[in-house]
Amino acid sequence: MEQFGIAEILGLAASVSLLAGWRLYLAVLATGLAMRFGALPLPEHLQSLQVLANPWVMGLAGFGAVIEFFADKVAWLDSAWDAIHGFVRPLGGALLTLAVIDANDPATQAIAFLLGGAGALVAHGGKAGARAMVNASPEPFSNVVVSTAEDVATAGLLALAYSYPVIAGAIALALLALAAWLLFVARRFLRRVFGRRPVATPPPSPPP
């Protein structure tokens, strides 16, 4: 693999930030497996990502990915899972983005850490908000469809990110914008659905 330029590095950073907000464990596991079996040779300046190929890291990521795969397809259990990971995914996105950026520039790494965490947080928020809207639907199948679509999109974008990072980064930025919009829409929807309160009927006036 050739040395990545600045555009490729930014594209890769944007992609892993988004994926951490959707499927952190799957992103870590898939990257680790690809490096472990030589399908993903890393440029010299991305060797810090090699830690993802550690058997203990892959084992933990695999365990989390299996639980998430099933939990994410059950109505309201997926929202509870998202709530638990409201801190984990942004932190994971920040650390993954940090591993992509040149370690010789502390200022750039600090910016990358903050932006990576923010990107993962927006992606996580959009995902969680969209799931809450889906859960408001009475039929039980939409969760499986949406979750499976996220699984496929995550695997596809991850593969694209390491092969064509600029294209993947552009897609990731578009998806992050979509996630921000979904977060706004979900907030309004949930306030409208769950914010309703029955209007108390005033007692009748006593007869004169």
Give structural notes.
This protein has 208 residues and is mostly helical. The protein has one domain. The protein is built from 7 helices and no strands. The chain has helices spanning 6-36, 55-71, 77-84, 88-100, 106-135, 142-163, 165-194. Helix 1 crosses helix 2, helix 1 packs across helix 5 (106-135) and helix 3 (77-84) runs antiparallel to helix 5 (106-135). The longest helix is centred in the N-terminal third of the chain and has 31 residues, at 6-36. The chain is globular and about 50 Å long. The termini are far apart. The relative contact order is 0.17. The model has no long low-confidence stretch (mean pLDDT 83).
Q: Which key phrases capture this entry?
A:
single chain, 208 residues, mainly alpha, 7 helices, 73% helix
Structure summarized in a few sentences:
This protein is mostly helical and 208 residues long.
CA radius of gyration is: 21 Å
Count of DSSP H/I helices: 7
Quaternary arrangement of the chains shown?
single chain
- Poorly predicted sequence stretches spanning 5 or more consecutive residues: none
Helical content band: over 70%
Distance between the termini: 91 Å
Strand content: under 5%
Q: Major beta sheet, specifics? A: none
Structural class: mainly alpha
| Pattern of helices and strands | HHHHHHH
Anisotropy-based shape? globular
